[in-house]
Specification:
- Chain B: This is Large ribosomal subunit protein mL40.
- Chain B: It is found in: Mitochondrion.
- Chain B: It comes from Melipona quadrifasciata.
- Chain B: Keywords: Mitochondrion, Ribonucleoprotein, Ribosomal protein, Transit peptide.
- The complex is a heterodimer of chains A (about 270) and B (about 200).
- Chain A contains 10 helices and 10 strands.
- Chain A has 3 domains: about 40 residues, no CATH class; about 140 residues, Nucleoside Triphosphate Pyrophosphohydrolase; about 50 residues, no CATH class.
- Chain A is an alpha+beta fold and about 270 residues long.
- Chain B is an all-alpha fold.
- Among the domains of chain B are: about 35 residues; about 55 residues.
- Chain B has 5 helices and no strands.
- At the A-B interface, β1, α2, α3, β8 and β9 of A face α4 and α5 of B.
Amino acid sequence: MMFKRILTLRTPNSLSFLTTKTSFDTGISSTSKVISRTLSEQSTDIDIDIEKWDLLSAVCLERHPVITKSMLDIETRFHNMLQQAEFENSTISDFEMQKQNNKNRKTIQDFEDSWKEEFTNFKFAERISENEEDNAVMSLRRKLDKNLVLLVEQKIGNSNFWIPPQSIRKHRETMIQTAHRTVQELCGNNIKVKFYGNAPIGFYQYKYPKNLQERGQNGAKIFYFLAKYVSGDISSEIKHCWLDREELKKNLHPDLHKSLVKFLLPD
Amino acid sequence: MIGVLNLANAAFRASLISSSHNISTYIHPLYFRATEVLLGEPLKKKKRLDPAVVRAREERKRKKLQKRIRQLEKHANHMKPIFEIDTLPELLQNEKRTRHLSVPLSEKEIERRKSLEKEWCKYKHSQWTKDLHVINSIIKSQEIALKELKAVSKQLYKKAVEFDDLYMPYSVTGPVYTPSIKNYDNPDGEYIETTVKYIGE
């Protein structure tokens, strides 16, 4: 018996709706279909599309900035002005009054000197890390003032691509579960991440080449989840790199980059 | 009569000595019978306190309480001082204190500050519009993703938009000016306890 179904698809680039009529032979009578639906919780909706499209979850893992960005010219100028106005409007403090008294000026000067010395002797960590010059893309300590995205080298078809870690959804998994599994399988158990929600934030789809399509699969639908790096390290031996926004543009496929930029905060 | 009593006595004693040859006369309610031996001593007599001592004790207790009440009443009008507030009028009264700015600003400087403020406003506005664009783009991207998911499977969509408690208490430690020093040994500070204990506290 023919089972007709109307599938509404939406292409990612154009916002127009594309309505396709797909009909296929299920080989089961409609009554038995109803029974199987009541018996098993899983609706047949899932299976219909899984036959046509591969569902993938991908994780955009970000390392957020560790240090603040250096101020722009206008920001520095305004900052200085505010500081000056603040100083001008404030009254003289007790300490300054003591300092104005000629009696113990010397001891106060000594105090100030010792404090200054303590401050200059303290070594702060460098704002510019050594890794920046080395361009060690594997390191998490590079470009501390920027958002970095994790890319891994994964095999798609016959060639390797640098993409955010992704994997195909397994049966009975929700998309977020697939995303969690992806991080664990590709990056190891040593890394701690925090997801920004169960709902996918980005979408990208592509069609498989003709010879693959004939086998039944049209293409892949990738749902992107945003996550932030908390602690730990990538323990598996997968080839990976942490890239900032500009490097991302150079290393990603242009179409994929277009759909990622939609939800990634710009620098 | 005496003979009967003697006999009874003998029988009683016999019952005490050997329990195997018990002779019992307890057949009729009117007959005599032997009570069980009580192996105990009478209770100790309660020690009686001298009423004067008791009175003295109570008196002492009352006096102690009264003293405490008197102490509290003495300081009833005296509030526990809040230093942060107390020092403020002191500062206001002190007229000697001057501001850091001794000479008024020049025309040129005032003009410079005004123009800088205008520039700052423009800069913040452009920043704000950029932020709006970014937020809009993110929302749109998520809407598209969710619509696609809904088209694929209603169930997966439902799972994705379900409320999840896990995300709610969200905390983040922001970026800092200088990164943390690796393996930094934090020295213990010294402090002097200066907290004052007030009466009634």
